[in-house]
Structures are given as C-alpha cells and as structure tokens.
Amino acid sequence: MKLLGLAFLILxxxxxxxxxxxxxxxxxAEELRVRDGxxxxxxxxxxxxxxxxxxxxxxxxxxxxxRPKTTAWFKSQFPKAxxxxxxxxxxxxxxxxxxxxxxxxxxxxxxxxxxMEHRVNGGGGFEAKSVEGIVRQIWKKNPRTDICLxxxxxxxxxxxxxxxxxxxxxxxxxxVANAYGIPSIDLGVExxxxxxxxxxxxxxxxxxxxxxxxxxxxxxxxxAGHDVYRDVIARSMLTMxxxxxxxxxxxxSPLEPRCWETAGLLAITHAGxxxxxxxxxxxxxxxxREDLGRTDAMLRGGVKCDHAGETITVKWNGTTIGFSDIPQxxxxxxxxxxxxxxxxxxxxxxTEKIRRYARFFYLPEQAPGDHTAVLRVKTLPxxxxxxxxxxxxxxxxxx
Length: 399
What we know:
alpha/beta; Jelly Rolls; 2 domains; single chain; globular; 12 helices
C-alpha cells in the first residue's frame, strides 16, 4: 500500500522530488546529467516575478565571466521574470569554506537556484562532508530551492577528461548528486574536446591565429573561455527545462553521518579573546587592504595582535573547527590545543609574493560532543601582526 501510495503521489505530481538514487557512474565524465532537473526554477521563471539565482564558488565564479554571462542569458530567455543574481563567490575557497558561509551569504537571500562550483578549489580534505552539508543546509532552509553542480576545469584535469574520466573531486560530487537527484554540468568536457581537436589552446600568453585561447594561466578562462562556459550551461538549461514538476525536494538520510549540515561562522569578536587583541579598521589597515575584496569577504573585520602569546578560545558542540587569518612572512606560527591536549603547531606562511591575503585552516576532526579550542600565537616576527577573522565551526557554539 505504501508503494502504491507513493506511485500515485508521484504520478499526481505531489510527492517530494527524488524517490530513489540515480546510478550514473561517478568516475565517467559527461557534459550533462539531468537527474531530477530544475523544475522549481523553471516554474518560477515562466511565471514571472523575482527569481533569485545564487553562484557559490571560487575565483572562476567571482570573475566577470560565466556568472554574469549566465545571468544575462536567463534574462534574455525569460523576459517576464526579474532575474536577480546573488554573487556568493570568494576566490581561493572551495566547498569546505562554502559550507560554513552558505547560511549568511546565500540562504539569507532566499535563492531559487544555487549553482555550486567547487571542483577546482576542492574541499580542504572534507570534500564529501562539506558538499553534502551544503546540499542539506539548502534544502533544510527551503526544500523548493533547486541546486545545480557546475564543474570548471584546470589544466591538470585535461588528460582525465579527454580519457572520459571525471577528475579527482568529481566522483565525490557525483556520488552526492546521484543520491540527491541533483543535476550536474561538466564545463570541462567541451573544453577538453576542443583542445584535443586542436581548435582550442588551453594556455597561452597571447592570441593564436585561428584558435580559441582558453586561459592565460591554465585555470582562469579569458572572455572567450567564459563564453564557452555560458554556452554549455545554456544548452544544458534548455535540455532540463521540460524535466519534472515544481515541488519540494526529498531530503534522504545523509551519506556521511558527520556531514557538515551544521556548519557556520562565528565572528571573532564573539570568541574568547585575550587582552592584547585590537579591532581591525578595514578601510584604514594597510595589510587588510592589500587584497580588500577577498580579505573582507573572509575575515569581515577581525582583530590583530602585535606580539606572541595572545589567545583565542572557542567552545562548541560538534566535530570540527577552523580559523581564518592573514599570514605574513615565512616564520609566523600558531598552536592550537583542543580539550587541553598537546597543541598542534601550524605554520602560517604567506606564499603570495605580490600581496598578502586571507586564508583559513581547519583542525583535525574530533568525536561529536563538547569541545574547547585554544589558539595561541606562538611565533610572531618583529614588526608583523597576526590577523584573525571569522571562526569556522562544524556544530554549535556553546557558552
């Protein structure tokens, strides 16, 4: 009776989307896997009124490229709708940072669609947990929000894609997509095909006659490369347009019992700070301003100290904790102790030669429960300050 009832609801268009897993091979690369499609998005686009499309990703998405080009395409295809773009991209960040910030950067703006672009930057060693955590956070907030995974390409992925294989992080994301019925678009398949055919040069410093030069650095597309990305997305959208009926997405049991569905951010000013920290004034601080867009997006203010020994204390109930900061020089070190265990020493080197910019790091995963982490500035070369920003918390902060 239960099976018959579910079948009736599906036929009537009343059952939550996705009643079972898809079995696409995660290791095989395909340009488009439709799965449950994006029916809620297209219903809203056709109906007219505001439609909010969010882009969560790294520097490839932050660029003035496939993101605004795709938004413009939606506007041209659906003139009755008011398409609103939510730019939630921060360079150098992957799914691990995305899981911690999605609540404030994306979900607070009530998106109808979330594009997730994480394959190039990865997930900081927490790939499966963080990707699934993002998905579950989205659908816990609004089960009618559609999600689309978008895979961009870097030069090291070419051989795998040309051999029909999904590069490193791809199988993890495809496994999540299969379980949750989420469509995926691999932009790298078309790029790899053109490169193999000889019509595209993947990396070049100058134009090449008769060829499309994709990028100057092997990662970030030029304008013509972003046009290809947009065109692949456009044809994928047209393929998905008739698929499915608008309704709530089903939230199954998690694949990863410790997935990051409770991830969030804690303002550093809400942590326990020793007396030597001073508030950063973003618009006046020289170091903070060197890469203001990225640094402010990650630290969002913050504090700094000018001598070793200062501490930051955070209490939480969960599994994992991380810190955002601005490393300087090559000798800066912090040490972090969890639950009074022997501290872990972490070197905070700045490898960027042109400017100093924000970064982040995580501590090893703990058993679920109550924990206390104490970060201590261990080595601080003379004349430098240690900058600390938001704390990344997997779980709930406790008093």
